[in-house]
Amino acid sequence: MVTAKHPHFAQRLTKGVICGVVCLASAVALRSETASRPPSEINQAALLYAQGMYGPAERIYRQELAKMEQAVGPNDASLVNVLTQLGTVYTSLGDFRKAEALHRRALAIVEKSPGQAQRQLAIVLSNLAAACYHLGNHAEAESLAQRSLAIQEKVLGAAHTDTVNTVNNLAALYHSQGRLAEAEALYRRCSPSRRRLLARGIPTMQRTCKRTCPCYAS
Questions:
Q1: 4 or 96: which carries more pLDDT confidence?
Q2: pLDDT tens, position by position, 185-215
Q3: What distance in Å separates the CA atoms of residue 13 and residue 114, rounded to the nearest whole number?
Q4: More confident residue, 159 or 72
Q5: Domain limits at 32?
Q6: Does any domain span residue 65?
Q7: How far apart are CA 84 and CA 65, in angstroms?
Q8: Does the structure show a pLDDT above 50 at 149?
Q9: What is the CATH number of the domain that holds 49?
Q10: How many distinct structural domains can be found in the chain?
Q11: d(Cα 14, Cα 20) in Å, to the nearest integer?
């Protein structure tokens, strides 16, 4: 696992990329359930994960993925949500190699899907970026996060929470590498209210926020 120069930013990167995307992936999965009625075990696994019971959640996701693969094959678009959710479980368990493999597989499926859902693609890119970051592959993590951000800005807009989270994640990655000017440039793109939120627990960003946002209070 990578030891960052700035632990506050490394911690925020983990929380931002992983937790934020898990919530979004769960929302996509719930919408998918309404349309196709997948097994209720998927919802049970999501609840277990939300409660921090990663081991039981992993077993259910793994079993359901095997069932789905047997039914539709290994490359069907319907597998993406389960691959994504299982990958985030492995990230939470600290098994970043398994997480990376699942997220790469999900990305390959999404990119080959006709009329790919852009928001789903952004989710997969962000999850893979997190796995790459934890494995020390910062260059690829940066590239993936930039792709995700470009999609979110186009599809959701710059002010959307998901977009702001990705801006924060990318700024955190830059900051962990000592690229402070680039991190601050991204940070300044956020609205004053978002700056206050993102600055919590990050002393250098708190100072910037005080300079650029008069209503900020630490």
A1: 96
A2: 887 776 565 665 555 544 444 444 344 333 3
A3: 32
A4: 72
A5: 7-191
A6: yes
A7: 11
A8: yes
A9: 1.25.40.10
A10: 1
A11: 9
